[in-house]
Structure prediction request, 87 residues.
Amino acid sequence: MTLSYSDTRKKLDQITAEMLGLIRKYDLDAASPFDVIEVARAKITDQSDYIRFLELSLEGRIYGEYGDALQKQIDEQAKAEAAKKLN
Prediction:
């Protein structure tokens, strides 16, 4: 399955919205990104919410890295097209 950059951004926005809901619901206030899982483990009392939090974390990471790779590819293609126009 190949997703466009726009589709990837939409999916990331959905993941972010759902994640923010869980963050607000459980008042997750990690001091650093390295503490997020520990804080979530301590504060999320509903096992299904905790599992969903972990899923969203993983999905966000995957879609984020995919989006970064797509953006890099788009940038490289734009540079190549610009170089062709100069020649």
Observations:
- The CA atoms of residues 18 and 24 lie 10 Å apart.
- The chain has a mean pLDDT of 93.
- The helical segments are 5-26, 36-43, 47-86.
